[in-house]
Amino acid sequence: MGQFIQQLINGLTLGAVYGLIALGYTMVYGIIGMINFAHGDIYMVSAIISVTALTLMSAFGISSVPLVLALVLIIAIGFTSVYGWAVERTAYRPLRNASRLAPLISAIGMSIFLQNMVQVSQGARVKPVPTLIPGGLELFTHNGFSVHLAYTQIMICVVTVVLMVAFTGLITRTSFGRQQRACEQDRTMASLLGIDVDKTISYTFMLGAALAAVAGVMVTVYYGVVDFSIGFVAGIKAFTAAVLGGVGSLPGAMLGGVLIGLIESYWSAYLSPEYKDVATFAILILVLMFRPSGLLGRPEVEKV
Amino acid sequence: MSAAHSLPLADRLKDAVRIGIVALLLGIPMLGLTTADQGGGLQVLTRWPLLAQFVGVVFFGRLILQWLVSHFQLRKLQRQRVAAKTAVVQQRPWLKWLGRVALAFAIVLPMAFSGNRYVIDTATTVLIYVMLGWGLNVVVGLAGLLDLGYVAFYAVGAYSYGLLSTLFGWGFWETLPVAGGMAALFGVLLGWPTLRLRGDYLAIVTLGFGEIIRIILVNWTDFSGGPNGINSIPRPSFFGLEFKPPGDTPTFAAFFHLEYSADHRVTFLYYLILVLALLTNVFVSRLRRLPVGMAWEAVREDELACKALGINVTGVKLSAYAIGAMLGGFAGVFFAARQGFISPESFVFSESATILAIVVLGGRGSQLGVVFAALLLVVLPELGRDFSDYRMLLFGAAMVLIMVWRPGGLVARREPTIQIDTPAAQGATP
Lengths: 304, 430
Description:
The complex is a heterodimer of chains A (304) and B (430). By secondary structure, chain A is mainly alpha-helical.
């Protein structure tokens, strides 16, 4: 029982992170219909940036935790969205009207490039950061197993929920959100109605990168270790989350993220931690076999 | 586009400044700042000169690029205007000759470089990638199914030979068809559930499949030896004659009354993979002209139309998967036999990405393009060993740039193998 609740907490935390990354996949897929393979690496870039930012803060002697967190978030979001913009501009925009395979391959190239760029410029070794928010609550003890809820976990869940609400508001209520949804439905029509499609797509990439940046900061604070290779697996899992929830659906991405996080932590706890990635991939294959449109997605109609 | 040519200098400078600012923002967290572990904790190190160099290169690079682009685009436009009147489908006979020259070179290579083991070893590696590229070309180039987990079939072939030979004493030639069949079976197993998926979903699923195979190989220690892999895999023999110093068993050197030399085996392995690769090429080129090959290309071009015409799309895709996987399996058997040692390390995702890059850079569907791309991707890193840190970095950048520059690949434009031979049809497919 204690173990079960503990894994529920861990799984929800992990799922919140996956969900934040998955939002980027889903938005980009919705608007230009391609898998942004480099998105996982954008998340990794942000984790590395947040390590640098955290170290800078301690070098400057800033010790107030909320201030540090806010500054690191701002720095990471700012720089990472420039990365998101640059990736779209160099690797995807020139291929807007090419065959489906071309942008996917340039995305894979971009992913390899980013990963190795960070390895070369920041070093291949794991980067540890000191714990920012120590401690937590001990919820209860059951049969000698005490259930912990770390403050970091509370922070991750709160930040994710706040972001989700703000983000949903942005998409459903603002003029940018309307433009974005218009581009999603019909790019040509949207451009005829005076929407700057290229600009909207650029902003979408920046927004996706910003969400991934938040996930990167959270993971750095939560685990305390980051290296250049974390992007690949996290990217695949977030993509699985996006597919599970239904690609193109924003609540679906969050739901998928939470489900993947829960499955992963229960699988690790009760079955075998070595095969936890196999579980994710197996779910991906099963979902695509039996429900390709995901849990909350609309089935796609193939047009001639 | 001609407007770009007449862009005043001030505007071009403004543009370059804008790009320079972006470069600065990109560079600050990665080049300008870094963290290093110095006695107990991370310390921030600054590298402002490096950042300044980077921004400078980007700024002037942008200016030059702008100038080049506007200069050449104008030229291109003029040429197009002239060329439009005489648009004829260009046959490229020189490509055929280039292929023949490459083949002749491949055959004489071990004689030209006899004794130079390094050259022959590298050439063998190139040929393995050529063979893998040709195998993947069936799936990606002909059938248009994007496969990011091709290395799984390579692994199936390699482990089939590794296990069958070390556990049951099977020889290379006996294992070859069995391993090919195993890989084909895996191809069908993977293909079956994913047939309903479109291009990019399929890519992710195949990637997941490749990772599953690798994770199983790493963790199922009883079966595969885990991360330690399989050691002392027997080498292939020349019709039963082994490549060993003279001893009890008949050896190659003794049979042909030669003095024993380790180079014999290296040369033999080179010719073995050359023959395997050429067989693959002939096999695939023949298949292209059979109904199944035409069906592959038809499915690639328009799946919906194929369905409407009553083509069994499922069967067509599965056959492409099975044949592509089988060829990958053959290459895997050769790999295991050549190395004598295999471990999951050899079958990681970047390997799949390399093979895919070979197919895509070569031009999907082009057999000769695969050869050049394999040569490029294997030999360039060998030449630049000093840059080994930057190898994958440049590799990724090259993948992006080549895609942006030529989305169809270096050699081929996706030309159908057959087309109706009327002047009207020729004019319609430039």
